[in-house]
Amino acid sequence: MCANASSPLVFRHGLNSVAPDLGWQTGDRDKDVTTNDKSHGINTRLAHMGNDPRDFFGFVNPPVVRASTVLFPNADRMERRDQQYTYGTKGTPTTDALAAAIDELEGSAGTILVPSGLAAVSIPLLGFLSAGDHVLIVDSVYFPTRHFADTMLRRLGVEVEYYDPALGADIATVMKSNTKVVLTESPGSNTFEMQDIPAIAKAAHAAGAIVMMDNTWATPLFFRPLDFGVDISIHAATKYPSGHSDVLLGTVSANERCFPQLKDTLFAMGVCAAPDDCYTILRGLRTMGVRLERHQKTALALAEGLEGKAGVARVLHPALPSFPGHDLWKRDFCGASGLFSIVLDCPDAHQHKAKAHAFLDALRIFGLGYSWGGYESLAVIANLSDRTVAKAPKEGPVIRLQIGLEDTADLMADIERGLAAAASA
C-alpha cells in the first residue's frame, strides 16, 4: 500500500461534548488510537480509523444514528445553535465517523458524504461554477459526468469544454480567463488513459482554477490526489469502499482552501447521505485493503495472460509496461485496482456489436452488469461514442472487465470461453 497514505487522524468524536460518563475511568486501559501512528500499515489503520469505542460504551462499531430532529436544552442554546449536532442534514455521529475515516485516507481538511458517486461529481461542480464560467473536463471522463455537464451545467450558463487526457502541462494552452475548474480522472473511464496530475494542477493553479479529480479507480490507498496538487478528491464509495454491490454513496474531500465552500454547497442543497449507508461503507473500509490486494493481483495476472492472446488486439491496463501511460502510473501510483479493458480483435466495424455480444453471452462466471468494485466479476461493452478528443480504439470493440474475488484460473477460463465465442461469431 502507499507509503504516502498515512496522516494524523482528524478526530470528530460526535458525543464528546455532550456524552455522559461511559465508564472509561482514569486508570482504565486506554485504547491506543493506532491510526495516529504513521508507522502502522494501512490495514491496521483501516481496522481502527473513524471511531473510538470510548465514545460508545466500548462497542467496536459506532451506532447507526437515524436523525432528523435534534433537541436543545434551552432557548438560548437553540438560538445560537450552540451544540455539535443541530439537525440530521448537518451530520450525526455515524456520518462523522465515516467522514473522519475518509479524511485520514485522503489527507483532507474535510469530507462531505452524498447519496451516490454521481452526486459526488455534481455537488462540487455546482459549488464552484457559475454562469459565464468555463470548465475543462477530461475527454475520458465517466459518461454520467459528461451527461451532467452537457445538460445541467450548459443549461445553467457554464461553458463546457473537453480536453485530451495526454495534455499534461500543455493544458495551459486551453485555459481561458474564465476557466474556474479543471476536472480530471486518471486513469480515464473504460480506456484508462493516464494524466500527469501534478503538471495539470500546477498549470491550473497558475491560472486561478480549482482542480478536481475523480479517483474512484485507485482509491486513496493507491493514489492520494491532494498530495499531488488536486484541491478536491471525488470518490464513488459505491465501489471499493463498499465492496459488496449493495449500497450507493459518494465522498468528496477537499483541502483547507476549498472545504468551507464545499460544505456550504452541501448544506444549501440538502443532499446528504443516509446513516445506514454510511455505516455500511465504514464497515466495508475495514476490509478494503485486503480486498484491493486480491483485486490487484488477479486483475494483473489476467491482463498479463491476455496480452498476445488470439482474439485480443490490446489490453488496456496502466500497470502493464506496454500501456502508453505506464510510466505515469509507475511514477505516481502505488497500486492498481481490479478494473481494466480488452480490445477485441475485429477490424470490421460492422462486426463489432456481434463479436462483443457473442463474447458477453458466452461468459458463465462474469456477470453482465454495471458498476464495479464488488466481490463478483462483471463485464460490459464500453460505449465510447461520446468521445470528442480521446477516440475509441480502432482494432475492435472494448470490453471492460471488473475483476472480483474469484479464482484466477476460473476467470481466465471464462474469458477464453468468451473469446472463442467471439471468434466464431
Automatic annotation (TrEMBL):
Any one of the GO BP annotations: transsulfuration
Alphabetical list of Gene3D superfamilies matching this protein: Aspartate Aminotransferase, domain 1 (3.90.1150.10), Type I PLP-dependent aspartate aminotransferase-like (Major domain) (3.40.640.10)
EC numbers: 4.4.1.8
EC class (word): lyase
Record has Acyltransferase as a keyword: no
Cofactor: pyridoxal 5'-phosphate
A GO MF term: cysteine-S-conjugate beta-lyase activity
NCBIfam families membership: cysta_beta_ly_B (TIGR01324), PRK05967.1 (NF004626)
Annotated protein name in UniProt: Cystathionine beta-lyase
Organism for this UniProt entry: Georhizobium profundi
UniProt lineage: Bacteria, Pseudomonadati, Pseudomonadota, Alphaproteobacteria, Hyphomicrobiales
